[in-house]
Amino acid sequence: MRNSNTNNWRSTALIAGAILTAGVVTTTSTTDVHADNSQNNAQVSNDQVTYNQVRATADQQLAQLQSANDSKEAQQATANEQSNATDLAQTNAQIDQLKASHAALEQEQAGAIAQAQASTAASIEAQTSAANAEYQQQINAQQQNEATQRAANDQQYAQAVSQAAENQQAVADINAQYQQALSDAANTQTSQAQAAANNYNSAVAKENDTYQGKLSAQQATNAENIKNAEASLASATANANKPYEVATTNDVAVTGRVAKPQTDVKVPAYVTKYGIHLEVRGYNGAIPVSDYTYPEFVNTYYGEYPDSAVITNKAAESTPHDISEMPLDFQPGLLSYDAKNDHSEKVSADGLTADQGQVLRVLALSWENGFRNNVFQNYREFYNVVNKNDGFVNVAPVDLVSTDFTDNIANQVVANRTKYNVDNNSHTVKDSGMPTEATYSSIINNATQNLKKNLTSEFNGKTVYTDVNENLTTMQAGTPTLLNYAINLYNSMQGMYYGELVNPTHIGGHAVNLLRAGIRTVGIGFQKLTDEMTAKNGSGVSDRKNPSYAVTFDHVGFNIDHDANLTKEVQNRNVWGTSTVDAQLNTIKTAQYHVNKVPGTKTVTPTATDVQKATASEQQKLADVKAQAQQSLDVLASAHQASLNKLEQQYNDAKAQVKANYDVAVTKAASVRDAALKATGVVDLQAYKAQLDSAYQNLVKADQVAAQKLAADRDAKVANIKKAENAKLDAKINELVPSVDSQIKQLQDQHQAVIAHGDAVLAELKAENKAAYNKLAEQFNVQLAAIQRREDAKRANEVRLANNTVVLPSAVKVANDGNVDTVAFPTASTPLQAETTGRVQTVSAPSIVKTATQTPIAVAPVVTTVNHAAENTVKSNESSAPVVTQTAAVAATTNNGTQTSVASTADNKATKADNSEKSVVKADTVAKKQTPAKKSESLQKVDQSSMSIVALAATALLGTLGITYSSKKRHN
Q: Is-contact 718 131, C-beta < 8 A?
C-alpha cells in the first residue's frame, strides 16, 4: 500500500510580513499568462545608459584611429615599393654599363689575347717534347742492358756444356757406383722388412690361441650362472602365480523402511456426502471433485481428520512405525497411524520438549520444500500461475531454510500469540486482538529492517518487494507420541497444500503463500493451545486429553524488481542465519539409508602386474648375471685387443726402423757421388741453365718497375709545365682586360641596403600605431570598469522574485547613487551604435532554499532586454521564473555568443599588411566579471540573514511546491 503525506505549510501571512519588514516590495503586473507567450519588461538604469554610450564612443574612436593607422602604414608601404623600384632600375643600368665596357675592351684586345694564347701553346709543346725525349732515352738504356745480360748468360752456358763433354766417362763411372749402392740398400731393406713381418705374424697367432682358450672357459662359466638364475626366476614365478586368501571389508547398503503416502483412499459415505471444505477462493461450500485437475489431490483433504480416522482401507506400507520412517519428500497422499506399532518417543502431558519440537520443525521444513519442488517439476501450471507477475515463470525455486534467524521469529510469534490468547483459527494479525507491534508482520519487519535497508540501497533505482506471509494449521494426537504428532501434521499439511490445488484458476491461499518463489526462509512455531481454545466450537480438536498445537509457518523473502537472477542471487547470500535443522535431518536420512562395513575374506588370483612385482627381485638377479657374463667377455675381448694393438705397434716400429736404415744408406750413396763429381769439376747443366735464366728474369722485373716510375715522373713534369704556362696566360689576359665582378657585387649590396632601410621605417611606424591604439583602448576600459562598479554597488541589495522586487537592507551605503562622472574623450565624426542595443543578455538567477523533504526545483534561466530604440520585448522560454533586476551585472555578448573585453581585442589589431581583421569593440571587462563561475564583489557582501529572508519569500510567493513521501512497493 502506498503511503502519502499532505504538505503542511505554515502561515503565509507570517512569511509575507517578514518580507515587508526586510525591505520594500515592488509589484509589477503581467497581462498574458500563456507558457509560450509571457512577457517581462526590465528597467534600465542611468549607469547602464552611460555604460552603453561610453562603449559606443570607444568603438567609434578606436575604429577611426585604426583607420588612420592603416592609411599611414599603406602610404609608407607604397613609398617603399616606389623607392625600391627606382633604385633597382638605377642599379641594373650601372651593371649593364659595366658589362658593356668589359665586352668592348675584350673586343679591342682580341689580337693581343690570341697572340698570348699561341705563345703559351708553343711553349707547352716544346717543353713536353723535351720531357718525352728524356724518358725514351732512359727506356732505351734499360733495353740495352737487358740484351747485354742475355748474351753473357748464353756464353757462360756454352762453356759449361763444352767442359761436361770432356769429363763424360768419369761421370758415368761415378753414377754406376751410385746405382750399385742404391741396389744394396734396397736388398737390405727387403730382408729386414720380411724378418719383422714374420715375427709379428707369429706373435699374433700365439695371442689368438691364448685368447680363444680363456674365452671358452669364461663362456662355460657364464652359461652355468645364467642357467641357475633362470631356474630361480621360474620357481619364483610359479609361486607368485598361486592364488591366495586376503581379508576384506565389504560395503553393504542398508535401506531403512520409509512409509509411502496412500492415494487410493476410501472413506465412509457420510464423509463423502459432507464433501471437501477448504479455504479456496470461489467456493463458499464444498468443492466438487470434478473441479480438480489432478484426482490425486482430492484425497489429501481427508488429512484434515485427526489421525486420518476416516480412512477405511489403511495400507500397511503407508503406516510408519517410527520417526525415521517418515517420508522426507512430500508426494500427494496420506499416512496412517498404528498405535500398536509406534516405537517413537512419548510426549508428556506438559507437551513437546524443545528437541521434539525441533524434530517436527525439521520434518515440516522438508515437507514444505518437497511440495514446492514437486509442484514445479510435475504440476508447473500451478507454480507459474502463482509467480506469473514475479519473474519466476519456469524458474525453479530456491529451497527454504530454517535457521536461528527464523527460529527467533517463530518463537516471538508463539510468545505473542500465547500472550494475547490467539487460538488456532486466528492468524497472528491485529484483527486477532493483538497490538500492531505484536503481529507476525511487525516481528518480521523488525528482524529484517537492516537487510531490507541494505538491499534498497544496493539496488537503487529498482523495486525491492517484500514477500512475507503466514500459514496456520492445527496439530493434535490421540496417542501422546512424537510419531502420532508427526503423522497428524503431515496429513494436515497435505490437505492445506495439495488439497488447495483445485485447478490453475482456483488455488487456495495457503498453497499460494508457499509457492511464492520470492520467499527464502520459514519460521515454524508450535503454540500449545489452552483448554479454553480447544473447547471452542470449530477448534477442530477431537481429543483434548493430550496437548494440541497451533502450527505457524511465517515465510520471509525479498523479490528484487521481479528479476529472477537478482532475486536468487540475494537468496543464496549468507544473510539468513545459521541452519538449526541439519543434525536432526541427517539423523533421519542416515536411518533411511546408510552403508555398513562387513569384514570377510576373498581368494585373489594374482594379476600379471602382481606376478611382475613378486618376481622383480629374481628378474633383477637374472639380468645382473647376464650383465656380469657379458662384462667378463668384454674384459677378455678388451685385454685381447690391447695385446694385438701392442704387437701391431711393435711391428710398425720395426718397419719404421727398416725404412730409416734404407734412407741413411741412400743419403750416404748420394753424398759419395756428389763428392766425386765435384772433384772432377763437372756441373749440373740443367740447374746451371735455370740459374742463369732466373738472374735474367730478375733484371727484367727490376727494369719494369723502374720504367713505371720514369713514366709517372714524366707525366707529373708535363702537368706542371701546363699549369705554369696557363697561369702566365691568365695573368696576361687579366692585364689586357681587367674583371668587373667586384664592381657588380658592390652595386647589388647597395640596393639591398635601400630595401632594408624601407622595411625598418615601416616596422617602426606599425609599432607606434599599435602603441597608440592600445593606450586609447585601455583608457576606455578603465572608465567602463568604474561605471560598472557603481552599478554593482547600487544593485547589490535588489532581488526580483516573480513580479516583485525586494530591496534588502544595505550593509554599505552606496556613494554617488544615480550619478555618473563624465570623462572627456576624443569625439568622432560619425558615432557608432552600441552592439548590445536590443540584445538578449543572460543573468544569473538566484537559488531558492528548500527543506530536505521537498523535491528540488530547477530555476528557469532569466533573460532581460536592453532596448533604447523601439522598446522591443523578448519572450521568455520558461513560465513563472523569478526575475532578478541586475542590469549592472548584465553580461555583454558578441554576435557569436562569446564575451571579450576592449583590452583583449587590442592585441589583435594590426595593419592591412598583416592581413588582420578590423572591427569595433566586441565586449568589455565588466561582462567577464559576471560569468556563472564568479560573483561580483558587492554581491558577496550581502548580509546572510537577508538572503535567508529572500529564500523564505521565494518559497511563500511561488506557492506551488509539493512534499511527497513514498514507501517501497510490497507484495500482499
A: yes
